[in-house]
Amino acid sequence: MSKKAKVSIAVTVLASSVYLSGCGLLSFGDKEKIDPPQDVSYLKEGEKVDTAKKEGEDKETASKDEAVEKTVMTELYLIDKNGYVVSQSLPLPNNESVAKQALEYLVVNGPVENVLPNGFRAVLPADTQVTVNIKDGKAIADFSPEFNNYQPEDEQKILQSVTWTLTQFESVEKVELRVNGYPLTEMPVNGTPVDESGLSRNMGINVDTSGVADPTSTKPVTVYYVSQTDSKTYYVPVTKRVSSDEADEVKAVVQELIEGPGYGSSLASDFTGAELLDDPTLKDGTVTLNFNEAVYGSLEEKMVSEHMLNSLVLSLTEQKDIKGVSVQVNGEATTVSKDGEAVTEPVTRPENVNAISF
Length: 358
Prior knowledge:
By secondary structure, the chain is of the alpha+beta class. The protein has 5 helices and 17 strands. The longest helix is centred in the first third of the chain and has 21 residues, at 49-69.
């Protein structure tokens, strides 16, 4: 699976492109125009207007740059109100031990409590201490004995949270867990086996095996569904099981998005009535999908649903060979814009999913 941090992925959407950034990920058209503030400056004796204005601008820019330098956007895989393990990208203090700090922000009653989004909770037991040593692509996370004091129902969530949080960093492919210096071969509460060669994202996240009679005849794919808390929309990764006989994983991913998260789920998929009219094609890292008109969020404006597009981009770029996504409707390219004009700016996948700023 593709890395989530420090990886730029070009995305071609329809005949044009849209920006991916922040919680909503996609931004259509021009930003709302705001009248500039009417600043009033008082000059020192002998000072020119241009000089005072420039000094004020320099101070403001320096202040903003300093604030950016003091923080680094980091993905923390927390537990949402529905029990899903979800990335929330937060600006954490910028220090040399970013991997260790990320795990420290997963601890209940730890520093994350000051920035915890509404509806989310931390993962690791209170008072847990941790050290992280990264070597040859493996992160060794050594926890204090307090790590053992979790609820049984959180065991899988802890494994997924720690693994996905650490593997956001380019230097980490696998994760080894230790407690008080001793490697774990199984989790201490429910006894879930821990791969001695190291944990990776191949283990999946929020694994859904509903409707699967024989897991041995299936393979995993991870798709992103939509969830919401209060007024905030965010995207939840879910690992589904598809038939091992399905050779086209792109088609399998799209089909899972179309079928949705299942009846009674708190998640949603904005693909009602959508159908692929042709098999997906992949060329030079860009996959082309040809849908029917149901992908339009508005048939009058011929505008593709924002959440549908977000889910497609996030889900398909989990495939290591896919860098871009091109969507057609009835075999023809279309535009994505609120004002009906094509958006032509280049697009990259955000380094962090569900980003939050303060």
